[in-house]
From TrEMBL, chain A:
Keyword Metal-binding among record annotations: yes
Span of domain SWIM-type: 54-87
One Pfam assignment: SWIM
MF-aspect GO terms: zinc ion binding
Name the UniProt record assigns to this protein: SWIM-type domain-containing protein
InterPro entries membership: Znf_SWIM
Length: 466, 470
């Protein structure tokens, strides 16, 4: 069963979806478009508004589909766009011998039903694919006065936000002083309620990003042993003080704005001429998908620059509502691709967007990072902290080492040539097999108290540890 | 300062002078906040976690004798392992991969310390799992009484099993010399190895174990003796003789017009209590003792047993034969039931760990050919991997049954077919696996269905081999 535009029109939940889909039919939105004739499948990766691409697969046989985006519309605009491309430009799809694992995974979990009738359904008359295409072509023409009005309104909104955030930070300062006066012991015990209350105030006063960060403090504290929590509380609250001070001195600084109130849009970052651009081969080190207390799920994909002589990282970070359900991973750990990344402007750029993907890269070992004779595995962390002391999680590439255990069963990473020196405790349970492997290089995140392992290279090849 | 903040209060007076210079000149609250910011930064960049003195390192994970499964095949392997729901099925996947000359990546699968079923090549990993500290042994050395303690249990078990196959007497002497010094659990595992190359010369040693401290060891030795035709208990026929009690549950009759011959039929039971007692007796008695109650040899007794009359009794006697029957009784029962076919042939499944590879394969072929009880194939233990040819599948009704289960709407049938496909994935040659995938996909199974994962792995392993060959 092939697609024709009538079928797409019938499947679309509404006219808005069709219009949105029409904008996504450009080839540049799709770094990957593939098909498998034998299985009657088409799939692709769409670079949507998030940092991580959305993966879309459509069964041409029965019009079953799956997209990893959090949209509540079924089918979503990405699915419709994929079908649209299949209907109008089938040559865009490269033939693939076998389907990738994520497609297989969907097929495996899928319950086959009888093919839904792709006939016009009630309300379908209200949708028109021609209109959607027209909408795409007709750029709205605004008069000069309207543009000025809009810009003035934007400026006013920005000023209002700045004032609200400034007031929010005053309130935060007072709150921190209160915690110190009342004692951090009580703060640690009651951090859940206390952080929730101030976070709610900050949301009201438009310091949304900061509120989200404060909401996560209790869970970060609880992940540690009780004797470590006061120090961790000092670190967390001290960083907030630094961040608030930094924002006050430069409220328009994009990095600080992002950490305190709201982030730029994808388009703004891509259009920013100052944003750092790096074209390289990237390896997916691992993914972290964490449910947050504010009802969002943060989805971060950590990447390693394979062409750089020193370890360089990037993170693709997205947030989506937890109510959207569990999302499939955007990448598999170990995936490699050739891409141009655009970094969000910051003192130590980490967060990035994939501007363009040029194709896959064959797997292999990591570059031979000369770790030198530096005995401090946290030197990289210190350099991040010097530049941006409000950062909590820093990526590190650790030199040759091994994982050891203490008598409580906690895992520790220790450098191979420094058995009496520094050891870094590892977050969570450690796979016992790791204890017998020599790690030639280990990529991990350090949050000041725990090491969160991402991946490693060993005599047994690449180890996925995320 | 830290303690002061923990309990609550101002710390300005306690701060170092340099910090005071930065933090001073502001309101008391602001001073505290500034000190807090400095302290946070100091904690982050100037201090390092204090490593406990008790950090322990495990010995390096040994390299195994076979190459690692190629990276390209690891996704298929992980899919197959994910689909294998229990340890037994996972071990089958591991065995299949080993039969094609590869071992798994340790992060994909590791045997547990108590593992006795995974392929021998994994012995160094099993011992690594079991070891807490200690030096590595030299596995190339021949096991002797002198270097006994240098071997970890799994390596020792494999070395002994090998010795039992090549020179059973020297292995027995070693077990005789060393077993008594081992704990009961290890002793049991060592005595269990006597089943390899079991011969009458082992009888005196096994008899000596009747005085062993462990009941399980005594029972195992008794069963091994029974396999050699040695009666375990005195057949006094008294009320304490369990063989006599069990014999009372069996009716002896005659059959045939010209040549009258004995037949043995399970007696009709009157209560669940009787059923329970009979099961206990079948478990504790040895076949040789039971046969002797009827003045018959083991093969005569098995040959005259009326399979099909009482399902439970058939199952119990099959288990009894597997546990304590002589090799002759085991092969006699397997050959006779497989030749007759039908449902009773399924009782041979209890015997598969003791049957040779030819008989095991004959049983699998029969089950596939009959196709009435295809699911029984999942119960077969100890059968080789990767030998089932396409003809074995297509000659009988198995393929048709699988196709119809896959194409049908009956969920239970489809689940059953999934299990069978997984088992055949283990048994089949790569060509058979590839053909079977095509066959069931044509019948309507989604090409990427998880139940095809073992078959896919099987087929891909051959593709890889042919690529490396060329």
């Amino acid at each position: 069963m092939e697609f024709d535009l009538k079928i797409i029109e019938a499947l679309a939940p509404d006219q808005a979806s069709l219009s949105a889909a029409s904008k996504l039919t450009k080839r540049s939105n799709w770094p990957r478009l593939e098909k498998n004739e034998q299985q009657a499948l088409i799939w692709g990766e769409c670079q949507g508004s998030g940092s991580n691409p959305y993966r879309v697969v459509v069964d041409r046989g029965d019009h079953g589909y799956k997209c990893t985006c959090p949209s509540r519309k079924f089918p979503c605009k990405h699915t419709l766009a994929l079908m649209w491309i299949a209907a109008t430009a089938p040559a865009s799809f490269a033939a693939a011998e076998s389907s990738p694992e994520w497609v297989n995974d969907w097929l495996g979990r899928r319950r086959k039903t009888t093919p839904p009738p792709a006939q016009p359904i009630e309300g379908a008359a209200a949708k028109s694919i021609d209109e959607a295409a027209r909408t795409d072509e007709s750029a709205a023409v605004e008069d000069v006065a309207a543009v000025e009005r809009r810009e003035a309104a934007q400026r006013k909104r920005a000023e209002d936000t700045r004032q609200a955030v400034s007031a929010a930070l005053d309130e935060l300062d007072q709150w921190i002083a209160d915690q110190l006066r009342l004692g951090l012991s009580g703060f640690v015990d009651g951090s859940s309620d206390r952080c929730r209350r101030i976070a709610a105030r900050l949301v009201d006063m438009k310091a949304t990003a900061l509120a989200g960060r404060i909401d996560e403090i209790p869970s970060r504290l609880m992940a540690l042993r009780s004797e470590e929590r006061p120090d961790a509380a000092i670190r967390e609250l001290g960083k907030l003080v630094l961040l608030a001070k930094a924002w006050r001195s430069a409220p328009d600084d994009p990095e600080l704005k992002r950490l305190v109130s709201t982030s730029e849009t994808r388009e703004q970052v891509l259009a920013n001429p100052d944003a750092r651009r790096v074209e390289s081969f990237w390896e997916v080190l691992g993914e972290k998908i964490e449910s947050r207390r504010d009802g969002l799920v943060s989805h971060s994909t950590w990447l390693l620059d394979l062409k750089s002589a020193t370890p360089q990282f990037a993170v693709l970070l997205d947030y989506f509502p937890a109510s959207a359900g569990r999302r499939s991973n955007a990448f598999a750990p170990g995936d490699r691709f050739d891409a141009r990344l655009v970094f969000y402007p910051s003192r130590k750029p980490l967060r990035a967007l994939v501007a363009e993907r040029m194709g896959e890269v064959t797997s292999g070992a990591w570059p031979d990072f000369s770790f030198g004779t530096a005995k401090d595995p946290l030197a990289g962390h210190a350099s991040y902290q010097d530049a941006a002391p409000w950062i909590t999680d820093c990526p590190l590439m650790l030199p040759p080492g091994a994982i050891l255990v203490d008598d409580r069963g906690t895992g520790w990473w220790q450098a191979a040539d420094d058995p009496q020196g520094i050891a870094l405790p590892i977050a969570g349970a450690v796979n016992q097999t790791l204890l017998g492997l020599d790690l030639a290089a280990t990529a991990a995140l350090w949050d000041g108290a725990r090491l969160d392992l991402l991946a490693a290279q060993s005599g047994f090849g690449r180890l996925d540890l995320s | 300062m830290r303690d002061c903040w923990i309990t609550g209060g101002a710390t300005f007076d306690l701060a170092p002078t340099a910090w005071k210079t930065i933090a001073g000149g502001a309101s008391p609250d602001e001073q505290e906040r500034r000190l807090l910011a400095i302290a946070a930064q100091a904690l982050d960049v100037a201090l390092r976690p204090a490593a406990p003195k008790t950090l322990r390192r495990r010995p390096p994970l040994p390299r195994l004798a076979l190459p690692m499964l190629p990276e390209r095949l690891r996704p298929l392997l992980r899919a197959a392992l994910k689909h294998a729901v229990d340890a037994r099925r996972k071990t089958r996947v591991v065995t299949l991969v080993a039969s094609r000359g590869f071992v798994l990546h340790p992060m994909d699968w590791m045997p547990v310390a108590s593992d006795q079923n995974s392929p021998d090549v994994y012995a160094p990993w099993i011992d690594w799992q079991a070891s807490v500290e200690g030096e590595r042994h030299a596995p190339q050395e021949k096991l002797t009484a002198e270097n006994w303690d240098e071997f970890y249990p799994a390596a020792r078990r494999i070395a002994l099993a090998e010795m039992r196959r090549s020179g059973p007497a020297s292995a027995r002497l070693l077990v005789e010399a060393k077993a008594s010094g081992e704990p009961a659990e290890v002793r049991l595992a060592l005595i269990e190895l006597m089943r390899f190359g079991l011969n009458p010369e082992d009888a005196p040693f096994l008899k000596s174990l009747s005085a062993d401290r462990s009941g399980k060891v005594r029972e195992l030795a008794g069963r091994l003796l029974a396999r050699l035709g040695e009666h375990g208990r005195s057949n006094d026929g008294g009320p304490d003789d369990p063989a006599a009690e069990l014999a009372a549950f069996i009716s002896e009759g005659k059959s045939g017009f010209i040549r009258r011959r004995s037949i043995y039929t399970p007696a009709k039971l009157k209560s669940p209590a009787q059923e329970k007692r009979r099961a206990e007796l079948f478990e504790t008695c040895n076949l040789v003792d039971l046969a002797a109650r009827f003045s018959a040899t083991e093969p005569e007794f098995i040959g005259a047993w009326q399979f099909g009359a009482d399902n439970n009794a058939d199952m119990l006697i099959a288990r009894m034969v597997a546990a304590s029957g002589s090799d002759a009784a085991v092969t006699h029962m397997a050959d006779a039931l497989v030749a007759d076919g039908g449902k009773p042939a399924l009782f041979v499944l209890h015997l598969t760990p003791r049957l040779d590879s030819r008989r095991n394969r004959a049983l699998v072929r029969l089950i596939l050919k009959q196709a009435n009880y295809l699911n029984a194939i999942n119960l077969a233990e100890g059968i080789d991997a990767g030998w089932l040819e396409w003809d074995d599948l297509s000659n009988g009704s198995a393929l048709a049954a699988l196709r119809s289960a896959v194409a049908g709407n009956d969920d239970a049938m489809r689940r059953g077919a999934d299990d069978i496909l997984e088992t055949i994935g283990f048994l089949a040659t790569a060509t058979t696996a590839a053909k079977l995938i095509d066959e069931v996909v044509a019948a309507g199974m989604p090409p990427a269905a998880p139940s095809l994962s073992v078959l896919r792995l099987n087929a891909a392993l051959a593709e890889h081999q042919s690529r490396t060959d060329t």
